[in-house]
Amino acid sequence: MIVREILHLDDLPLYVSWEPFLLTIGVFTSAFFVISFISVYFTRERKLRDLIKGSDYLNSLTTYSKIRAFYGIALIVTTYVLAFVVGHTSLIGLTLLIPFSATFGTYYFFSDSVPCFLDLARGKRKYHWQRYRLLSLAEQTHIMMDNVKMFFVVTMVSTLAFLSVGVLATMSSYTTQYDRLNPLGLVYKGDVDNPYEREHINSLRLQLEEKGLSYQLSRFIVVKQTSSFTRNEVEVFRESDMNVLLSSYSYPLLNLGAGEAVFIPYSEDSLKKLKDRVVQTVLEENNIPLTIDSVYPKIVFPGSIVSVNSIVISDEDFAKLIHPISDQDIIQPSYHLFTFVIPQWMETKDIGKDIEHLESNLYFIKKNRFSPFYFENAGLNYSYILATYSLFTLVGVLVATVFLLAAGSFIYFKLHTSLEREKRKFDVLKRMGLTDTELKKLVNRHLFPQFFLPWGVAMMHSAFAFLMVQGILRDFANISIVKEVFFAFGFFVLIQVVYFYLIRWRYISHIRS
Questions:
Q1: Taking the alpha carbons of 264, 268, 270, 272 in that order, is the dihedral positive or negative?
Q2: Residues 38-63: pLDDT tens digits?
Q3: What predicted TM-score, i.e. pTM, was given to this entire model?
Q4: Is there a contact between 259 and 279 (Cβ–Cβ < 8 Å)?
Q5: What are the contacts of 483-486 at 24+ separation with CB within 8 A?
Q6: Distance between CA atoms of 468 and 86, rounded to whole angstroms?
Q7: What kind and span of H or E run contains 505?
Q8: What confidence tens digit (pLDDT) does each residue in 232-272 have?
Q9: Is the Cβ–Cβ distance between 379 and 185 less than 8 Å?
Q10: Between the CA of residue 51 and those of 42, 44, 55, 255, 346, what are the distances in Å?
Q11: Residue 196 Cα to chain centre, angstroms
């Protein structure tokens, strides 16, 4: 029932089959044998007298390199710089370097950088030889040198958990902002001589009426001209056509005089960029001077419909657009645009399927380079996005849960294996006069780095990863994921704090027993 709700399915019948059980048993049994044989070859051989020495022998082998310590910090910083550069430029190819630099940098950080920092701290006697710091630093140095692989694995697994939930947050952000980014229900755009125009528009109106969906239809004639200011093409809309659409939204209407024009925003960023911009230009083909001193304060078209250079002029000036654009390479010097404002736009996913099918045939089957029309159904596109998001939600939640349990289990079982040694150590300290309050402080300093250092590094990795994703999404989809990612990270921190205090409570109870 939960899966059915997540995937937005009308029905998900229960059935019992032997194939899933056989597949599960076969996969896990095969994995068990493969891992068992591989582990034999990767297990380090030691002499019997070395094993008798126990942890003393192992600790005598652990050391660090200052060069590798520098490499660890340098590689992590390089990873963050690459993420920042990719997020603010178009150098997407640099993302291939990020996983490698992050992986090697994280390993060197725990194997060499952290022990190097602890060794430097131990060298400062005034800081080191004070109350609990002597015991804490000595213990943390031993823990870090003895558990390098565990901290590395926990960090990388936690990073994957963060990224899994972050992907869900990204898709959630897009689904929640889809209505704002795509204000129109249906959009039909075609050439002036499009032979399908009348048939398609009548078909769309008929289908909407049959489903009982209210709509408001607006028709535009868009003419392309050359701007003397930029020397690039500009799409010109007529004021009266635009006011018909604005009245459908109940937005303020335009009132332009001769020689006046306003920008049409194509994204929220463009609203900020064009807000205070004033441009003096001339539509060269028809010698029409214009002053563009404002941008319409609302997004009225999806970003896929209007160009980055779109303006609205008065009806008086629009009537003077007699000569087409002089650039012969322009395939579509003018076009017709039909917009349907539909309050119940999510119920339009079945509207215009015949037009979608014809458009696909023109593009992929007949291999036409240019189609005479373009059709976009926001309800259909949203249904695809919602279905994909629902599937990713199910998979992402399962993956994140497994990763979180795995990361916590590594630390828990590592603490459990050394529990007897820790009990003997704290028993000696209690005989020396260690109070219960002092015991809790030492346990906090013993457990806190093991829990929160890997998670802190993983969170830093994920934060810069999503900084990069935010930059890419801002350019391609104009959405923000800051709020969703911040909420996801806060939820992870809360889980980790609760898990820390739970393990701390169990750990102290074992030490006292």
A1: positive
A2: 877 766 665 655 555 555 544 544 57
A3: 0.64
A4: no
A5: 483/173, 484/169, 484/170, 484/172, 484/173, 485/166, 485/169, 485/170
A6: 6
A7: helix 482-512
A8: 888 999 999 999 999 988 888 999 889 899 999 887 778 88
A9: yes
A10: 17, 12, 8, 89, 68
A11: 40
